[in-house]
Design a protein that fits this description.
alpha/beta; 197 residues; two-stranded parallel ribbon; 26% helix
């Protein structure tokens, strides 16, 4: 009897400790979260990215200008340098729903450090209280860096709300941790190939 009581207490302590550890990052992040990001995060369940490295050959015929592969289902972004010596794998956020998701081939057409942001007309329809313009800084939902793609309104960018990574939580863009987008920003160039699958 005493042994089973001790096991129950140990199990209870383990569960309480685990809940505290899991909840700590989300609680700690609240201060750096924009209201727009809080709105999205509140209605999106957590789903961790499945990390699995890939080879570039099934997706690209060459690595000219480097290559970025975004796997929407596994919520990961893969990067290969033009010479094939550098490979990176990053967890990402992806669009909230299939109708907001764009798949196919495009490329990086512009790189912006400290991007500003304006919501699209469709975003404002869904969220009429959002601001019409957000300058660069800690309240900007694009984070510290943005790679503008050949498709209008689509970007690979950072986020100040780390809870979004590994979730279906964006309005169409691909989001990365700020430290990861800063690294990817330094590795890519205008003309880098991008494929979303």
């Amino acid at each position: 009897m005493e042994h089973s009581t001790r096991n129950m207490l140990n199990r209870r302590n383990f569960l309480i400790g685990t809940a505290a550890v899991i909840g700590a990052p989300a609680l700690a992040q609240t201060g750096n979260t924009t209201q727009m990001e809080k709105d999205v995060t509140a209605r999106v369940p957590r789903n961790i990215s499945s990390f699995q490295s890939r080879n570039w050959q099934p997706y690209f015929s060459n690595l000219r200008n480097g290559a970025v592969l975004v796997d929407i289902d596994s919520r990961t972004l893969h990067f290969w340098s033009a010479d094939g010596t550098t490979y990176r794998l990053y967890p990402s956020s992806v669009p909230l729903s299939e109708d907001m998701t764009r798949r196919g081939r495009t490329s990086v057409i512009q790189k912006v450090e400290g991007p500003s942001w304006s919501p699209t007309a469709n975003m404002l329809k869904r969220n009429p209280d959002w601001p019409r313009f957000v300058p660069p800084g800690p309240d900007n939902p694009l984070g510290t860096h943005a790679l503008y793609l050949g498709w209008k309104y689509y970007r690979i960018h950072g986020t100040h709300d780390t809870r979004k990574i590994g979730r279906k939580s964006s309005n169409g863009c691909i989001g990365l941790y700020n430290q990861h987008i800063a690294e990817l920003f330094s590795l890519t160039r205008v003309g880098t190939q991008v494929l979303l699958i």
